[in-house]
Design a protein that fits this description.
By secondary structure, this protein is α+β, with helices and mostly antiparallel strands. The chain has one domain (about 5-135): 2-Layer Sandwich (Alpha-Beta Plaits). About 45% of the residues lie in helices and about 20% in strands. It is built from six helices and five strands, in the order H-H-E-H-E-E-H-E-E-H-H. The protein has helices at about 5, 15-35, 55-75, 100-110, 150-155, 160-175; strands spanning about 40-45, 75-85, 90-95, 120-125, 130. It has a five-stranded antiparallel sheet, sandwiched between helices. Strand 2 and strand 3 (about 90-95) form a beta hairpin. This is citrate lyase holo-[acyl-carrier protein] synthase.
């Protein structure tokens, strides 16, 4: 399916769960092939519509920033797999560096880049599994709307969908016009 044909298409919870299973299978295959830490990139995309012009721009910006990071650090990327489905944009990178060092670097991108809060940059270690921000002593991600811990707001559905989407659009528009 052409990317433009996916724009604005609502996806179901079942489709999202199937996409998560496919992502896990791709991760297992890359671990088996490369045995390196993986960087899994997804987007913060609340609501049933995952593919929009905005989400495309946010993912392209994330990819550009990650390429800059890899060039700056000299970390070899042994595999780079971009996925574009109705369920959203994803990318996987097999990176030849220590997993904790990679997590520190991508957490800094999440925290410091103007669009970083819209990226979900997860590091998976072949031996230990996912590395959390908390395991590195880093603060939890903050809510896009109120600044409280994001997990608490998401779990309680504290903010209406239109408020969350407006906060995302505002952040993206501010970045585009800077």
């Amino acid at each position: 399916m052409e990317p433009a044909a996916m724009d604005g298409a609502a996806v179901s919870l079942a489709e999202m769960l199937e996409a998560r299973d496919r992502r896990a299978e791709r991760q297992r295959a890359l671990f088996a092939r490369h045995g390196l830490p993986l960087l899994s990139v997804t987007l913060v995309a609340p609501g049933p519509v995952k593919v929009t012009e905005t989400s495309r721009f946010v993912m392209e910006t994330a990819a550009d920033e990650l390429e800059r990071l890899f060039r700056r650090t000299g970390w070899p990327v042994e595999a780079n797999l971009a996925v574009r489905e109705r369920t959203g944009f994803e990318a996987l990178y097999a990176v030849d560096t220590e997993a904790r060092v990679l997590k520190w670097a991508v957490a800094a991108l999440e925290d410091d880049h103007p669009l970083g809060r819209l990226w979900d940059l997860d590091v998976l270690c072949p031996m230990q599994g996912g590395l959390s921000r908390g395991a590195l002593g880093l603060a939890p991600r903050r809510c896009l709307v109120c600044g409280e811990p994001a997990h608490a707001c998401a779990r309680s559905r504290r903010h209406p969908l239109d408020t969350l989407l407006a906060a995302i659009e505002e952040r993206v528009n501010a970045f585009r016009t800077r």
